[in-house]
Amino acid sequence: xxxxxxxxxxxxxxxxxxxxxxxxxxxxxxxxxxxxxxxxxxxxxxxxxxxxxxxxxxxxxxxxxxxxxxxxxxxxxxxxxxxxxxxxxxxxxxxxxxxxxxxxxxxxxxxxxxxxxxxxxxxxxxxxxxxxxxxxxxxxxx
Length: 142
Hints:
Radius of gyration: 22 Å
Number of strands: 3
Number of domains: 2
CATH superfamily of the largest domain: Mannose-Binding Protein A, subunit A
CATH architecture of the largest domain: Roll
CATH class of the largest domain: Alpha Beta
Strand order of the largest sheet: 2-1-3
Oligomer: single chain
Largest sheet: 3 strands, antiparallel
Strand content: 5-15%
Structural class: alpha+beta
Number of helices: 4
Order of helices and strands: HHEEEHH
Shape: elongated
């Protein structure tokens, strides 16, 4: 993974420059080509594109730019289509193969995520829970 400065140098050597996003249509075009994140040509003091121009289009995340710890001088394009896998082990006497029970667990997890400010996410089971027999539950507690 390159730093912003290295990415700018690489793009200028092999292509033209880092991406410049000047309107919502270009923002959508970049979004459809970026899987997680990519450096863009916006840097600050004041915020200018790497070619020196000052653009008016800004599509910041909420509460950004905040220059956290006075070290945020470059821009990155983040695509919200991020996938995170969470492995959980549930010990319960309930039938976790029951669809209503699985849905309830996902609803509780969604509420927990939403309470921390996360939004626009989608939760699903990649491997549905299996029903443990009582002897399996006792074995784990030994």
